[in-house]
Write a structure and sequence with these properties.
Blueprint (H helix, E strand, L loop, with lengths): L5 H21 L3 E7 L9 E6 L8 H22 L7 H16 L20 H23 L2 H14 L1 E3 H17 L44 E4 L2 E4 L12
Antiparallel strand pairs: 1-2, 1-3, 2-5, 4-5
Helix pairs in contact: 1-2, 1-5, 2-3, 2-4, 3-4, 5-6
Length: 250
């Protein structure tokens, strides 16, 4: 996007990094294909996965993991940018649909009542409360996951800022490097973040191997403002209008 400010790029990068890390850790039946802040249609960025095999059924745990992956963008915004952005429109829509299906279609929340017996309709007040409760519980879990792995999430975001797009191998190496660094860092030491090299940079074989350069975590670095987001192969990305931008890639 022409004339996009570095602050806008940073917002999108951290949003997508949240999705990416959550997908990597929570969706073992899928593999990461890429994460990017290059615009794709209406999406300002996306984090894409592909199933390792054909998938026809999902467990309750898998559905909850999908919900967490959708909500990881908002969690990353709050942790790293100290704000909430407009780009989560499609993420919240997708998470809400999955929670509604788990509760109202699949009997996964202690009740065997199915709303599909009476048509699609709008959930009644009791079901809305149950949906909201499930969403808040999964948000709390994924936020804790990202907070416990700040180096890895920030490493992905900084790699995106340096290269615009990371492939599966680069993502895996950045996360592995961050995890090694975290394991070696004394508990009292300040948190530093792994940084991916810019294209053409010498001295490292991959995006992860220059990591552990000193990029201090800024706990409240950004001013409040709006961004747009969307999602991808299964994807998650950025919609400049703030409107829905979820899509399934072929």
């Amino acid at each position: 996007i022409k004339n996009m400010s570095e602050e806008e790029r940073r917002r999108i990068a951290y949003h997508e990094a949240g999705h990416c890390f959550a997908q990597l850790k929570l969706l073992p039946r899928q593999r990461m294909t890429k994460v990017t802040i290059i615009r794709h249609g209406q999406a300002l960025g996306l984090s894409a996965t592909k199933p390792l095999e054909e998938m026809y059924t999902h467990t309750r745990e898998e559905l909850l993991a999908d919900i967490q992956s959708s909500l990881a963008s908002r969690a990353a915004e709050e942790i790293f940018l100290n704000t909430a952005l407009t780009g989560v429109t499609s993420d919240l829509e997708q998470a809400t649909r999955m929670a509604a299906a788990a509760i109202g279609w699949f009997g996964m929340n202690g009740s065997l009542y199915s709303v599909r017996a009476f048509g699609e309709g709008v959930p009644d007040p009791v079901m809305k409360r149950e949906i909201d409760k499930m969403l808040k519980e999964q948000y709390k879990k994924v936020k804790l996951l990202l907070e416990s792995n700040k180096e890895a999430v920030a490493g992905i975001a900084e790699g995106l800022l340096a290269k615009d797009e990371l492939d599966e191998d680069e993502i895996t190496e950045i996360v592995a490097s961050a995890e090694r660094f975290r394991a070696q860092r004394p508990a009292s030491a300040p948190i530093s973040l792994p940084v991916a090299p810019r294209d053409g940079e010498k001295g490292a074989e991959s995006a992860a191997e220059t990591a552990v350069a000193a990029v201090e975590v800024a706990e409240a670095p950004a001013d409040s403002a709006a961004v747009g987001e969307a999602e991808g192969e299964e994807e998650v990305g950025a919609d400049p209008s703030g409107g829905p931008a979820v899509e399934q890639a072929a």
